[in-house]
Structure to design on (1124 residues):
């Protein structure tokens, strides 16, 4: 037990480390830490998202001199999609007065949700994380606009209904769900099961274990046997390109394979080559770099060499746009918070108020140069998601093209599930604080 | 000259067999305990939450694996899953009986892990070496599958994750969002200290000696009258118990919520690194290994920024990976018996300094 | 669907799968084929393990990352503008450099250490290669340059057994390459001077040393051979799905294969791989749905475990004789 000597040594050594990230509490800037992952097995999705997030905020700094005259201090923290590293990131930035946490991983989100209210730093998990967090009365500190996974699944069912010529035609059909065998992948199951009951289709489940992401041939043989009419894919990372390839191998019609919005990156289909042509994916940001906002990013950031993108063509890719949208929400939240409080340098608490009363309407989108890129959206005190519409994008072999109109989710089906899940979370986490935060009027 | 035991006479057998036969060790140990209990709780939250709590928890898991791999010579790659059993057992127990103190359940969850450990330890009688390692891989992947597939384990919640409730000890919250880092640290420290003390007595006693006999040569041990199956199963049980408690602590007092993904195969490897780098068959080595393997990447990651070297965050991560790899090999080349052996050599050097011997 | 009565469960476990095999023989054949193809790839990974274990007694955990690293290097070099076959050549050179470096910097200083220490050292190697690979070529999944390497595309569709059995040309190529490699290694081991030296080293390091065989040279050769096998695996698996670091986890599947085949037997690695591959696919396809699917992640290990209980040294392993 002389080990304790070492404990001391380590403690001393690490004491010095702990001092390193000194809180240079900058009065004249707003600190926005971004948890990103450019390494590890999921880096293909993480890298473009990270580029989009960083570039947009840098563009705001370069073009507008920050928000409300205050520069944004952007700092990335590499998580590698790993929970332990996420904890380190969260704790290491805490002393620098962060105004928002963007975990970009379901596991890290789950892990920081309880801390948000205590540390007074809101979490922005854009269309990922805990679906139940859409209930703002239970989770005042967590925001997951514009939609939850349940919204996504219901949009998928609606889309299939449209293709078949009416939701009543779903009766007797078989719908498959190919999903990553982890909490993230399993999320849509309860909603799809309920819809299966309501519309009379059969739901078949095809889980892909995380260790078998690139070894799916048995599963797709099962699909060949069961012949589902449509497949919804809640996949991630290396699982997606393999699934698309396997689907092509068994001659499953690509137009009937629809991924959720995290299964819609360029890197998810490109490896499948021509076989991936026609693959569909839900989406809530439109792909392309003709939007004024993207042109501004190219002008102010990429052309000046301030971006990590490999080429200009990467600007406007789907996941890049996803990152831009994410940062737009952050920036607008800051702006809104400044308006509400009258202060230029805001805190996490102000940011929470700013996000909660966020209302991006068409005129605002126009000012942001995002008309056609995203849809207007708003959140409210009780609804932190907003349950907004998404569209279906089709891979034409080179890029994503819009394949459907914006489809509204089935709110009447989703909301009860959110309610129940939020209640369950609050009761199972005894001591979950009641909401005391006042509600601001929407801007 | 810094470390001389001259003049310290052992006049009884008990004194000769004490854990700390040398006065300097006793003073040093006391000083460390004093710092750990009296000074560190007031350290910054970053130091406690990011460094000390996980360090202690991983040390406990490393002790668990060391009992199996270092003391009994049975290589296991299922540590992560056994930690998971502890976490899920603790979660079920505390949600079924919320009024019983959480500490009781953290300890009790170890018994569930022990039971499962024994089950997967059964093949160890026939299978040896790397073959056994693969058998424990079966446990790892099967249990991980169970964590996802049995919704009962996570109370059927839709996020499929453990949501840690608030629990108190003497009226002070020690789990859940309101628990402060120092209160959680003190609880972890107390549990780890007590369990280390128990382990140190276990390995010095009859059971520990029979483990080591099995490790050194199991047939010879059998001939000497040690019952192999029993000894190996006890090793599996005790080891899994420690791992289970570590898993419960990890989820309840460190992460405070999360999904089964944290108990994957990488976690198993991670703990194995600690045991081997720290030193097989050494408790102090478990602490040293945990300190090195867990904190090294943190230090490495912080280094470029601290030195003012402008590197992208992902480049830092890549370099961290490479450096950790090189250092693992470097340490093994330097001292294959692990940090514990290095520590012994250092002490020996200190003893005779300034003379070489 | 009838309730889960015991009879019903027995029916679903013991009869229904066989009924399915009988009623849809094309699917059955297809499943076996898919299992065979996966198994061949497992075999190739296992082959790398066996080569190194035989000659140096090192349980090389880094074999998985070597698969990824070699494939990544190949694709990465091609992306940097090298023609496909030049990239292939350069990759082979790099794999030789790796073998040389490993021997000089890892194996030589650690000679005569316990197995577990060497095992651990290969973990260090794994970390190093992960970092190096990502640093040089980036971590995002890459498309294998299958076309440039003239790997065939498309499938041969056999309309037999009242259905369709689709054989991917790529998979056939993979099987052929595996066969050629095994045959080549067999000839190399049996007929050449170096091969005899290798076998001598596998038998006894000390005896080999005493008759003047250079252990260092032999180690470089086996690690290089394992690197080539890794490259072949990486190319085939990369062409089937894509080249990403997630492949490294699949490489763990080689472990049950090794158990089945024995750590020291090359034919064992091949047979073990095919048994595991077919067993796993059939289990997943016919029995998986009963357990909610996804049992592939652990089925291979359980199959291996059952075999182990009866033959602790694997199917083809050398009999373990223990003496005091």
């Amino acid at each position: 037990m002389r080990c304790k000597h070492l404990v001391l040594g380590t403690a001393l050594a690490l004491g010095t480390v702990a001092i390193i990230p000194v809180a240079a509490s900058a009065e004249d800037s707003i600190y926005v830490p971004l948890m990103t992952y450019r390494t590890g097995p999921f880096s293909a999705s993480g890298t473009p998202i990270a580029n989009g997030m960083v570039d947009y905020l840098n563009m705001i700094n370069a073009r507008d001199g920050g928000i409300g005259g205050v520069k944004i201090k952007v700092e990335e923290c590499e998580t590698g999609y790993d929970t332990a590293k996420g904890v380190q990131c969260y704790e290491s930035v805490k002393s620098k007065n962060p105004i928002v946490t963007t975990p970009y991983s379901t596991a890290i989100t789950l892990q920081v949700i309880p801390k948000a209210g205590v540390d007074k730093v809101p979490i922005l998990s854009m269309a990922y994380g805990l679906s139940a967090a859409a209930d703002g009365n239970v989770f005042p500190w967590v925001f997951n606009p514009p939609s939850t996974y349940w919204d996504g699944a219901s949009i998928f069912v609606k889309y299939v209904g449209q293709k078949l010529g009416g939701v009543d035609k779903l009766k007797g059909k078989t719908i498959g769900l190919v999903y990553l065998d982890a909490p993230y992948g399993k999320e849509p199951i309860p909603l799809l099961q309920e819809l299966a009951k309501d519309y009379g289709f059969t739901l078949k489940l095809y889980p892909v274990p995380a260790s078998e992401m690139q070894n799916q041939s048995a599963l797709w043989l099962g699909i060949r046997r069961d012949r589902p009419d449509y497949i919804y894919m809640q996949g991630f990372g290396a699982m997606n390109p393999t699934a698309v390839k396997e689907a092509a191998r068994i001659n499953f019609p690509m137009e009937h394979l629809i991924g959720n919005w995290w299964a819609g990156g360029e890197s998810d289909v490109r490896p499948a080559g021509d076989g991936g042509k026609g693959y569909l994916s839900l989406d809530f940001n439109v792909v392309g770099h003709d939007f004024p906002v993207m042109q501004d990013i190219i002008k102010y950031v990429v052309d000046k060499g301030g971006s990590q993108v490999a080429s200009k063509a990467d600007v406007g890719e789907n996941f890049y746009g996803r990152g831009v949208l994410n940062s737009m929400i952050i920036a607008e939240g800051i702006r809104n918070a400044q308006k509400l409080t009258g202060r230029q340098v805001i805190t996490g608490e102000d940011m929470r108020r700013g996000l909660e009363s966020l209302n991006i309407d068409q005129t605002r989108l126009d000012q942001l140069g995002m008309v056609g890129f995203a849809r207007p959206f708003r959140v409210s005190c009780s609804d932190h998601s907003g349950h907004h519409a998404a569209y279906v994008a089709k891979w034409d072999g080179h890029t994503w093209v819009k394949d459907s109109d914006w489809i509204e989710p089935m709110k009447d089906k989703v909301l009860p599930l959110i309610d129940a899940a939020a209640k369950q979370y609050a009761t199972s986490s005894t001591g979950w604080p009641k909401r005391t935060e006042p509600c601001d009027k929407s801007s | 000259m810094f470390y001389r035991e001259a003049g310290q006479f052992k006049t009884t057998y008990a004194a000769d067999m004490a854990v700390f036969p040398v006065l300097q060790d006793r003073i040093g140990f006391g000083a460390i305990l004093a710092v750990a209990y009296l000074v560190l709780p007031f350290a910054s939250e970053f130091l406690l939450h990011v460094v000390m709590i996980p360090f202690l928890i991983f040390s406990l898991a490393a002790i668990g694996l060391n009992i199996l791999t270092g003391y009994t010579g049975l290589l296991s790659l299922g540590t992560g899953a056994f930690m998971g059993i502890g976490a899920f057992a603790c979660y079920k127990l505390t949600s079924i009986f919320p009024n019983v103190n959480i500490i009781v359940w953290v300890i009790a969850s170890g018994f569930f892990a022990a039971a499962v450990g024994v089950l997967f330890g059964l093949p160890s009688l026939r299978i040896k070496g790397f073959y056994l390692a693969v058998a424990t891989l079966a446990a790892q992947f099967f249990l991980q599958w169970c964590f996802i597939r049995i919704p009962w384990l996570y109370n059927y919640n839709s996020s499929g994750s453990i949501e840690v409730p608030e629990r108190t000890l003497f009226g002070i919250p020690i789990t859940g969002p309101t628990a402060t880092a120092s209160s959680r640290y003190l609880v972890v420290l107390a549990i780890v200290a007590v369990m280390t003390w128990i382990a140190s007595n276990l390995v010095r006693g009859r059971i520990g000696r029979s483990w080591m006999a099995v490790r050194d040569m199991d047939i010879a041990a059998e001939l000497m009258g040690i019952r192999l199956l029993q000894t190996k199963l006890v090793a599996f049980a005790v080891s899994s118990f420690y791992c289970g408690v570590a898993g419960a602590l990890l989820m309840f007092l460190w992460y405070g919520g999360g999904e089964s993904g944290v108990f994957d195969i990488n976690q198993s490897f991670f703990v194995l690194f600690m045991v081997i780098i720290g030193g097989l068959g050494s408790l102090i080595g478990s602490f040293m290994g945990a300190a090195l393997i867990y904190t090294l990447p943190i230090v490495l990651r912080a280094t470029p920024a601290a030195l003012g070297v402008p590197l992208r965050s992902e480049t830092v991560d890549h370099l961290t990976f490479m450096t950790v790899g090189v250092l693992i090999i470097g340490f093994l080349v330097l001292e294959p018996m692990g940090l514990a052996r290095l520590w012994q050599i250092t002490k020996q050097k200190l003893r005779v300094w300034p003379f070489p011997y | 669907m009838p309730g889960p009565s015991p009879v019903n469960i027995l029916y679903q476990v013991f009869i229904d799968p066989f009924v399915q095999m009988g009623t849809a023989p094309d699917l059955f054949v297809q499943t076996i084929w898919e299992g065979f193809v996966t198994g061949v790839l497992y075999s190739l990974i296992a082959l790398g393990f066996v080569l190194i274990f035989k000659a140096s007694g090192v349980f090389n955990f880094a074999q998985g990352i070597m698969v990824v690293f070699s494939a990544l290097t190949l694709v990465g070099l091609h992306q940097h503008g090298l023609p496909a076959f030049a990239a292939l050549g350069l990759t082979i050179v790099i794999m030789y450099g790796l073998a040389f470096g490993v021997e000089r910097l890892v194996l030589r200083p650690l000679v005569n250490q316990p197995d577990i220490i060497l095992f651990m050292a290969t973990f260090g190697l794994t970390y190093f290669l992960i970092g190096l690979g990502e640093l040089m070529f980036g971590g995002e999944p890459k498309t294998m340059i299958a076309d440039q390497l003239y790997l065939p595309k498309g499938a041969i569709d056999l309309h037999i057994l009242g259905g369709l059995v689709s054989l991917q040309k790529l998979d056939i190529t993979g099987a052929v390459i595996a066969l050629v490699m095994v045959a080549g290694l067999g000839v190399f081991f049996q007929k050449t001077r170096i091969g005899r030296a290798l076998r001598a080293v596998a038998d006894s390091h000390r005896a080999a040393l005493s008759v003047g065989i250079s252990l260092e040279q032999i180690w470089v050769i086996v690690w290089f051979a394992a690197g080539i096998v890794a490259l072949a695996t990486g190319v085939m698996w990369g062409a089937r799905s894509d080249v990403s670091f997630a492949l490294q986890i699949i490489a763990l599947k080689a472990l049950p294969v090794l158990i089945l085949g024995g750590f020291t037997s090359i034919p064992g690695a091949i047979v073990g791989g095919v048994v595991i591959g077919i067993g796993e696919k059939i289990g997943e396809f016919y029995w998986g749905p009963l357990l909610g699917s996804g049992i592939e992640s652990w089925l291979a290990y359980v199959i291996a475990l059952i075999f182990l209980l009866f033959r602790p040294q694997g199917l083809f392993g050398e009999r373990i004789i223990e003496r005091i």
